[in-house]
Amino acid sequence: MKMMKAPKVDEKMVHDPFKKSAKKTTVVKKGGWIKDAIKKPGALRSSLGVKEGQKIPAKKLAAAAKKPGKMGQRARLAQTLRKLGK
Question: Dihedral of the CA atoms 6, 12, 15, 16 (nearest 10)?
Answer without folding.
Answer: 110
